[in-house]
Amino acid sequence: MFGLSNKRGVEAMHPIKILLRCVYDKKYLKLDELEIVIRHRSEEGEFKCIDGGKITKVEKSGFHYGENDKEIFIPGHRIAMIRKKSGEIIAFKL
């Protein structure tokens, strides 16, 4: 279950839909304003924070980002949280 933080309370919304909206809706948040927290594959319970400005492509199944001259794909089910760089939580996985 996913939660979306807003002024009306919490609504269910998948984080990939939020990232897609950032790409296609120019009046919505910008990717470079966000941090995406993902579950790290190598360590159980470990998380990694990705700067939204490094995201190169968003698909309905996940997103690609650039790191050390490589493009890495992160599937949507590994997204734990999307937050603004100021710390405000936009979406989280329950």
Helix-strand layout with pairing:
Elements (H helix, E strand, L loop, with lengths): L1 E5 L2 E3 L3 H10 L9 E6 L7 E5 L3 E5 L2 E6 L2 E6 L3 E6 L4 E5 L1
Describe this structure in words.
By secondary structure, this protein is mainly beta. It is built from 1 helix and 9 strands; from the N terminus they run ββαβββββββ. The strands form 2 sheets. Strands 2-1-9-8-3-4 form a 6-stranded antiparallel beta sheet, covered by helices on one side. A hairpin with a 2-residue loop joins strand 1 (2-6) and strand 2 (9-11). The protein is globular, with a radius of gyration of 13 Å.
Give the strand content: over 45%
**Mean pLDDT over the full residue set:** 81
The H/E string reads EEHEEEEEEE
Radius of gyration (Å):
13 Å
The total count of strands amounts to 9
Number of domains: 1
Summarize the structure.
It contains one helix and nine strands; from the N terminus they run ββαβββββββ. With 94 residues, it is mainly beta.
Features:
single chain, 94 residues, mainly beta, six-stranded antiparallel beta sheet, three-stranded antiparallel beta sheet, 1 helix, 9 strands, 50% strand
